[in-house]
Structures are given as C-alpha cells and as structure tokens.
Amino acid sequence: GSVFFLPKKPAPAKHAGRKKARVSSPERVPFEPLLEGQESSKATQTRYDDYIRAIQCLEKKIENFLLTVNESAISDLCNFVKNAYNKGIDKEENTKFFKCVSQKLQQANQNHIVFLNSMDCTDLKRTEKQVVRQFFGREAIDEDSDNDDCSNEYQEDCQEDDEASICSIDPIEDIVDMNTLAQWYEYNYQIKDGLKPLSKLVIIIQDFECFIPEVLENFIYMCSHYQDRIPTILMLGITTCIRGIDPLHENYSYSVVRLLKPVAFYLQTQKARCDDLVSQCLVEDAQCMKVGENTYEFLLDMFIGRKFSLSLFVSSLKYALMHYFYTNPLSILTTIEPEAIHSRLDLLNENHVEMIRMQISFREYVESKLHQPAKARQLLCDDYYVKSLLPTFSQNMATYHQRFAIALELVIFLQEFLQECLNYDVKKLKSRYELYSIALKKPGLGENEYIQILLDDLIKIDPKQIGELLQIFVSLLKNVFDHVDNIKQEYEDFYQFLIRSKEIENDLTRPSASTRSAATKMKNKESTILQKIEKIGDDYKQLVIDVINYLSIFFDENLRHYSTNTLFEIFYYQEDISILECAFVPKIRSAIHAALGLSTEYINCNCCMVDSDDESNEKDDDDWDSREQILSTHNDTSILYKLHLQCGKLINVRDWLDSFENVISKENLENRKLNEKEVVARFIKGFEELKLIGIIGSTSRKTDHFKRLSWGKL
C-alpha cells in the first residue's frame, strides 16, 4: 500500500578497478504470453507496462486519500499546536493519521515530534528515556539489554523526516532526564529578542487505551511540572471514538484530567471514509479497471468487515489488478485513452479478435444488427472491421463512466436536499458505497426503487424550494463542465430550469403595469394578488413535475447497469471471488484439521515416516491410506484427533483414554514403562486442546461422553 515515509535507497557500492563492459540483455517480462502462446511479445510487454502504471495510479489515489480524508482535523490540530502557548478508529489507521499530523507540524513550525507506544513505555523511567532520546533524534535503545529493541517504526520515520530540524542540534549524551532537558531547552530555545520562534515538544500517544494508567498519570504529572520551562502538548489517540474523551474520566483521576485540559478533535466517520475510498479508487477514474458485483462486495468486506482495514482493501484491489492484467490479453485496451487506442490495434492478432467475438455482449451486439445482414456478416468474418469498431466501444465505455459518476453525485445531492427539506431519517439515506453497490447489481441504480422513492418525495417539497436544488445541480455540472464535454446538454437543460424558477419568483414581486386610477387599483388589489398567487403556484407545480420527469429519464439513462455496454467484459473484473478468498481469507478450520489429520506431511519429519514393510503388513485394501495410520511418534493432540474420527456422534471418554494409552505405550518401550499419571496428564492436555479448538464439546445426555462437532475427513 501507500507509505508516507520511505527508507532511503542505499547508495550503490563503488568498486575499485577497471569496469568491465557488459552486454545488456533484455529484461524478462514477468507476464507470460497468453492465447496459448500466440500473443506477441510486444503485446505482453504492453500488458505488463499497463499493470505497473495501474498499480502506481492506485498508490497515488490511496496516498491522496490518506492526505485528504482528515484534512480539516489535521488543520485544526496544527492551529491548536501553533496557538497553544500564545497566552476511534483502528490503531493502524491512527498511525497513518498521526504521521500526517507529524509531517504538517514539522513543516509549519519546526516542532519536535515524539511518538510513544505502550509496549515501550512500561514504566516511568523508560517513558522518560523515550521522550528525551526521540527529542534529539537518537534511537531509543535500552542500555540494560542489547536484545531489547525499544525503538519502533514510528521513531525511525520521525528520525528521517525530522532531519532538517534535528540534525542541527548536537546530541548531548549527558541529557538523560527531563530536568537536564529543561535546562538545555531554556538555553537553546528561549525567545531571544523575538528572533527565535517558540519550538514546542509534541508527544503523540497513539494507543492511549493500551497504556498503563499509573505510568501515564505519573508522566502527565512530570510534564505538568516542566510545562513552564518546556512547552509540551500531548496528543492522545483514542480509538473508542463513539464515547469521545470518556476513557479519560473513567480511568484517570480528576486531577490528571484537570491538568490535561482536553480538547477533542473528531476525525471523519468510517462511513464517510469508505465513501471517499470507493469514490477515488473505483468511481471517478473513467480509464481504469472496474470491478464487478462479487468482487466489489469482497472489497467492502475486506474494509468494513475487518475493522476498516485500509491495507486489506488496497492489497485485495492490487491482487485483483494483478490477476486481471496477468490473465486477460484484452486488458491492453482498458487503461489507454480512447483517442490513443489506435496504437494498440496493431498489437491485436486474430486470436484477440476471436476472443472479442466470444464475449456475450458482442454476441448481443451482433444480434441487434441482424436486420442488416451485411454488417452482421462483417462482424463475424472481417477482423479489420471489428478492430475499427473498438475505438467507438472504448469511447462509449469512457463516456458511460463519466456520466455515471456525475449522475451518482446528483443522487447524493438530491437525497441530502430532501433530508433537509422533509426531515428524512438519516438512517434511511444511502451512502455512496451503498449506492454504488446497488448500481453494480441488475437492473442498475437507475431502475431501482430507491431512486423512484426520491423522485416521488420530491413532489412533497415546497415548490419554491426547487430553485435551491436546481442551483446545486447547475453548480455541480459547471464544475465538471471543463473536463467532461458530453455533459453540456444537461448543464443547459438544468440552467433553463433554473431560469424558469427565477422568472416565476420574480413574477410574485413584480408590480403590474396599469394606467388605472389609484382608487381603482385599491379596489382590485385583493383579487389581483389572489389570482397572481394561484397562477404562480400552478407554475411552480408544473416546474417541479418537469424537473422530476427530466431526472427520471436522466437517471434511467446514465445509472443503467454496466452490462448494457458492448464489450463491458474487457473493462470489468468479474472473476470468481474464490481467487481472492484463497489469498486473503484464511481457512483456519481446514488448516487445523489438516495439521491434526496429516501431521506427517504437515511437519515433514523423519520420525513419523511409515516403512514400506509395515505398510504392506497392515492392510492390503487399496482404499486404505497410509497417512491415516496412528503412530506413537505423533503429537498427543494429533493421536486423539485421529482416534476421535473412528467414533460416532458420542465419544466414550474411558474408551478414548484406553485407545490413547495403547498407542503411546509403543514409544520408549525398551527404556521405561509409562506412568499412569503421565498418560492421564497427556490425555487431558490433548483433550482440552481439542475442546478449545472446537473439535469436541460436552453433552448433557451422558456425563462420561463427549460429542463430536466436526465431520468428514480430509
């Protein structure tokens, strides 16, 4: 995934002596030629280059997402740190957020950033040492043990990015406590004649809930004692974001909370973060690989169902990209601009064209041309004619993606507008990622009942409020008008609706031209106003009806299902999600059963190998598998597991113990006899492990029996 702080690349080693000239050999492309080896080497190279560009583009999108997802919170935090002395989320995501904050603070005010981790701050002395050493950019190495690595990845990141501000400070080995640090700070960083800016010490505690309260309390007291000499600011990462700063009041005394004077900064909600992630990675870019319904649901499960893990989402999407470009020879037509697709047509041979003809959407396109036999014959027989149509298909798909993204934005603005006007329940509103999920399912978002509900509710609003909605639509289309040319007609149509609403509004306040006397005007004033209000009300209602009819047609056309486009199979990744599940969803239960049932193959040890003579003497049945043989050298848990496979629904504990004793009695038979207590202890240990794993369970039917919870064999 995207990383903010990258290690510096080591400089190439310089070898003395004369350099030998080497003949440069072409690098081997990691992708293999497809189409049974008929794909040209240039097409394979192009496919690999497109994959590399797609991965780089995805990493830039993720990096931009991480920088902008909490932009307002980062800005507020930086302003808070700047003005401080002038008088929930997953831990992984907290780490990335605090890295952004650290980067901003160091760029703005040359502050010193210290990262504290609960694993490295088990007592006050170690915490103090972490702060002092990170303040000077030195690694926090525990002097008591050479093997105890107190530093972590956050300190290394700080050391690399703090190089400009910290390298100018000469490390002082004598500084080992806060008192000496305060004296050094007063000497070097006090404001002298207003020339030096006040540099603050920002201590970031990323996993606040994991800290030992007593250690953190003492550290807060110590920082409070030196706050007049060292301007210190604590940033606490609280993952229980639903409760706000309640963990402070629950686990710490009132005196500590009073010293902290906490100010809460709330990050973007996980729902909003998921919306931004889906929008930037899957919706906005028209020239990229799209995912089908099943793959999209898998990606959502990786993000939402795994504690909003961004790394799992990115890894799954990268794997899908790799599999798409590695296995699809037509992927060279996906990421290129439609205007430049002519350069790729020369890379297509007859096998590519035949693969295009095999697509279901292309067959439907041929069937639509059956009333023109000459064209249908060309589509089936003329390879050059099929190639000539590819730029048109590519342009149509790019146009569909652009218009789809705009129509989706209009739906989001529409439901937010209705929520304000009609006091919608917020829970009933669909988020962006939910709307996109509906759009990927047939028949598409345009024909979904949710869109019809929104349009029906649009009639319920005050007709005078329709101008506000039209102004929102016009502003949105105006912003995208510069880079989306095919939306010009819709922009003009909504603009005309807006002009109509303004004219109707002006009619209400426009004085009527009349040459009658003042007495006549006063006499007919009441009737004139009533007629005008009635006429304007009818005009508003007609305008609302026209807007609703226009939106209904617009949504049906632009939010239709992607399968309505010809050759959509080239642009959408629709492989079976079992490919992704094998890579990212571990089958823990199957792995446990394999380890217990096939322990010899799992461990690959020599002590458990079956001799060929023993194998032939045991059984002559062809169905018998030597791997099912129970050996005394196996692990006790594995022996009990194989014995339990020979039982029915209920397992008699006494019979199980006797069988276990018969198996293990074969080991060390020449040396000593096994003690009965040792046998029972080993049985209980293996028995409890199987119970903990979920292989067996207790039953109320018989006290001396246990029931099987797993069936079948590998």
UniProtKB/TrEMBL annotation:
Q: Where is the Origin recognition complex subunit 3 winged helix C-terminal domain?
A: 589-711
Task: Tell me, in one coarse class, where this protein mainly resides.
Answer: nucleus
Give start and end of each Origin recognition complex subunit 3 N-terminal domain.
20-333
Which InterPro entries does the record associate with it? ORC3 (IPR020795), ORC3_ins (IPR045663), ORC3_N (IPR045667), ORC_WH_C (IPR040855)
Example of a GO MF term:
DNA replication origin binding
| Pfam family for this entry, one | ORC3_N
- Keyword annotations for this protein? DNA replication, DNA-binding, Nucleus, Phosphoprotein
**What cellular component GO annotations does this protein have?**
DNA replication preinitiation complex; nuclear origin of replication recognition complex; nuclear pre-replicative complex
Keyword Phosphoprotein belongs to the record: yes
Question: Where does it live in the cell?
Answer: Nucleus
- Could you tell me which residues belong to the region Disordered? 1-29
Q: Which GO terms describe its biological process?
A: DNA replication initiation
**Residue stretches of biased makeup (Basic residues):** 11-22
Start and end of every Origin recognition complex subunit 3 insertion domain?
Answer: 347-574
The family this protein is said to belong to = Belongs to the ORC3 family.
Q: Partners and quaternary state?
A: Component of ORC, a complex composed of at least 6 subunits: ORC1, ORC2, ORC3, ORC4, ORC5 and ORC6. ORC is regulated in a cell-cycle dependent manner. It is sequentially assembled at the exit from anaphase of mitosis and disassembled as cells enter S phase.
Q: What does this protein do?
A: Component of the origin recognition complex (ORC) that binds origins of replication. DNA-binding is ATP-dependent. The specific DNA sequences that define origins of replication have not been identified yet. ORC is required to assemble the pre-replication complex necessary to initiate DNA replication. Binds histone H3 and H4 trimethylation marks H3K9me3, H3K27me3 and H4K20me3.
Question: Any idea what this protein is called?
Answer: Origin recognition complex subunit 3
